[in-house]
Amino acid sequence: MGQGAGGGPQPRGGATLAQVAARVGVSLNTVSRAIRAPHTLRPELLGRIAAALDELNYVPNRIAGSLAGTRSALVGVVVSSLFHSEFAAVVEALQTGLLARDFQVMLGHSHYDPAREAGAVRALLGWRPAAMALVGIDHHRDVSRMLGEAGIPVVQMWDVGGEAIDSAVGMDHVAIGRAQAEHLLARGYRHVAVVGSLRPHDARAHKRCRGVAQALAAAGLGEPALATSAEPGDPDLGGRLVAELLARHPEVDGIACNSDAVAYGVLRALRARGRRVPDDVGVVGFGDAEASACLVPALTSVRPPRAAIGRLTAEIILARLEGAGPRQLEVAWDILVRDSTARGSTVSAPI
Amino acid sequence: MGQGAGGGPQPRGGATLAQVAARVGVSLNTVSRAIRAPHTLRPELLGRIAAALDELNYVPNRIAGSLAGTRSALVGVVVSSLFHSEFAAVVEALQTGLLARDFQVMLGHSHYDPAREAGAVRALLGWRPAAMALVGIDHHRDVSRMLGEAGIPVVQMWDVGGEAIDSAVGMDHVAIGRAQAEHLLARGYRHVAVVGSLRPHDARAHKRCRGVAQALAAAGLGEPALATSAEPGDPDLGGRLVAELLARHPEVDGIACNSDAVAYGVLRALRARGRRVPDDVGVVGFGDAEASACLVPALTSVRPPRAAIGRLTAEIILARLEGAGPRQLEVAWDILVRDSTARGSTVSAPI
DNA sequence: TTGAAAGCGTTACCAA
DNA sequence: TTGGTAACGCTTTCAA
After folding, report:
1. Is the pLDDT of residue B272 over 90?
2. Most exposed among A34, A318, B72, B190, judged by the fewest C-beta atoms under 10 Å?
3. Cβ of residue A161 closer than 8 Å to a chain B Cβ
4. DSSP classification of residue B7
């Protein structure tokens, strides 16, 4: 039940290498080597040291280790947001890859705001990470400068196509937008609109939007109708935007959404207005969220290879730390076609 | 484009306090005080130091600071999983509260496995955090021992009712399970079952399960039918479990799910089998995920106060660090009633 | 195979 | 109001 009211607990912070050494009767760095290079000790001594380490519950102080060593065992990661879990799977895969080599991930959030991103980068840099990973390829110039000056490997994730600071692993978001529109056109929808959250500095979302426009132009159609907002993309936003959209453009029969969460609200609002999906209107999302296959109708969506991006980022960081050169990778994605764009035919998601 | 192929980048790691001091022509710790206690310097000197700090792009080395200082500016946080985003909002709120006081959050994952949780706690403790927060109230004895010996504030989140190591902020999961069942019974469902992921060491899930049984017993009904699995809770699992459940217990007309993701699959599978929700079967979820209000029928679910739990955890940690005593808080939750349990009447979620 | 000693970049304390 | 100096707990030479 804690240490009673009043004074907070006294950090005791465990045994030190010196205490273990004293206990065994050897020098401090013999113990250090027992941990980092056991084979350089005679087995007998090693055994005694191991016993002492265990008895005293020794936990190496990574802070001291980082300060003394050539580099820290930290990797800084900046994502736009964990909350809407767009990047949770990326971070999880990245962390798994790094943890296997004993690197700890430190997370920062940009909240889709360049100034806050710069703040997060600065804060993370204070911990002298061995490398950094961040979402996006276009950054505030302070961010690029700080990262460049830090002289550590930097991997930009999720997007490609801009000027990479060092390395990059991501998708071509313009191509994704094109594919969303082309899919709708191929299914016979003609009046395509873009609906969703479009924050000023979310370059990926803007690129997807541009991709949609490109595909329409290529098909000899006009500009897409737009219903966007700088608010966070959630179902309620989707509902409000589509209501506004249909008021202005009743002819719209194909909707490319900027996220699945928005698409959920779009489907609900269309249903409430008596517009049938996919017969009257086709809807395609982005992100392939967990619920998308369970909606009615099931939502067609673009599936980003989240785990692969996280895994590759970890690989590049580790390789880079071993002296390999920077890399820029584009990863493939696909469209999961489900009922929300199944006009004419019936595409059923597996039960 | 990085530093060319071959050698990795050379960590340069920014200017040091000593370099800034040399530049200004003052001693190292005058600069240190310029940062931590500006009012103890004469304004003129302060100005010159500020200029040098800025020119050299000085970023304080938190590693060195933590080693030298009385305590580190880190808080370790262990969650079961970020992936299914159950805890993403909790972590986000916690981080926001801590960041305001310049504490950095370090994340670890237990993957619902006591051994991995112990590993995560040990790894985090290596960074000598000023405090720790973790999900759950029942832990591997190694975890309790390590945490106890660390002598730092510890907040256990999400659950209450066990023996807290220090402080706790959570919900009564037995009561939640009871409420799920009571809600179903109140709506006229009589044959209540529990469906979902039930990992051996997910104490919260087991408690909710027990709560359901308690409510049935109190109503003079028998044990709930169970369809559970140790696999992660996702829609596919829900679909498989409900198929199996209905084969064994065709009389079931009320289903309490252990998570909303599982409930999505349950709804889909019921629909595929021609069972109407809510007319034939009532379904209640847990977690109130983003899509739940957009399903057809919209899913009734228990909504945990995620942001409040994160915020309160931050508050307790900060207070504890200032010398306040440990606290154990139970937070309130509620049931969002939607269409999936609206038998007889029509409850509509707002569009 | 082991030990001694010099940092790493701060903070904290005491003296000036 | 400022400066000197000793930690902090480890890693990394270099010497024995």
Report:
1. yes
2. B190
3. no
4. S
Tokens representing A284?
A: 């395609």
pTM attached to this predicted model: 0.92
Taking an 8 Å cut-off on Cβ atoms, the answer to whether B294 and A127 are in contact is: no
B63 reaches A (C-beta below 8 A) = yes
Contact B9 A320 (CB under 8 A): yes
Check CB contact of B307 with chain A, cutoff 8 Å. no
pLDDT, tens digit (0-9, with 9 covering 90-100), for A97-140 = 999 999 999 999 998 999 999 999 999 999 999 999 999 998 99
* Strand D contact at CB of residue B70, distance < 7 A: no
Query: Rg of the Cα trace of chain B?
Result: 26
Spatial separation of the C-alpha atoms in residues B269 and B283, rounded to whole Å: 12
d(CA B283, CA A13): 49
CA distances to A51, A57, B127, B155 from B122, in Å:
18, 10, 9, 16
CA–CA distances in Å: residue A8 to residues B91, B224, B294:
23, 45, 46
Per-residue pLDDT tens digits for B10-67:
666 689 999 999 999 999 989 999 999 999 999 999 999 999 999 999 999 999 999 9
B318's tokens: 């900060």
B131-135/B282-286 β-pairing: unpaired
